[in-house]
Write a sequence for this structure.
C-alpha cells in the first residue's frame, strides 16, 4: 500500500502480520507500532521513498510483502510493485502480495496491467 493509505488500513496490516506469524515467518519487520521498520529505498534525484509493508524470513529466505488495496494512485502502486519484484529477483528473495476481501479484482487487474500475473497472492 502507498503511504497515504497506511493509517486508513492499519487493521489489515495487523491481520497480515498475524497471518504471517501463524504460517511460520520470523524476524518480521513492518511499518507499524511495535515492529522494526523495514529498510527504505529512495529514488535518486527525487523525494520518492519506497518501503515494503512487511519484510520477513522463513526457512532462511527473505520475503518482501506488500498489501494490495484499492488506491487513488494506482500508478505509484504499480511502480512500487515493479521495484519490489526486481529487488527480490536481484537479492534471490521472494515478493508476495497480500490482499483482502473486496480488493481481489483490483489487485488482479493491476497485476495484469504490469504483467506480474504469475505472482502468488495471499488472500486474507
Amino acid at each position: 500500500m502507498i503511504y497515504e493509505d497506511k493509517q486508513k488500513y492499519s487493521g489489515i496490516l495487523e491481520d497480515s502480520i498475524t497471518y504471517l506469524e501463524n504460517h511460520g515467518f520470523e524476524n518480521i519487520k513492518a511499518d507499524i507500532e511495535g515492529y522494526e521498520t523495514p529498510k527504505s529505498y529512495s529514488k535518486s534525484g527525487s523525494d520518492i521513498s519506497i518501503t515494503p509493508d512487511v519484510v520477513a524470513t522463513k526457512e532462511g529466505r527473505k520475503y518482501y510483502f506488500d498489501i494490495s488495496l484499492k488506491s487513488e494512485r494506482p500508478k505509484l502502486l504499480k511502480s512500487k510493485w515493479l521495484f519490489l519484484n526486481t529487488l527480490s529477483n536481484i537479492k534471490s528473495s521472494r515478493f508476495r502480495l497480500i490482499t483482502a476481501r473486496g480488493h481481489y479484482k483490483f489487485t488482479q487487474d493491476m497485476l495484469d496491467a504490469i504483467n506480474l500475473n504469475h505472482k502468488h497472492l495471499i488472500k486474507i
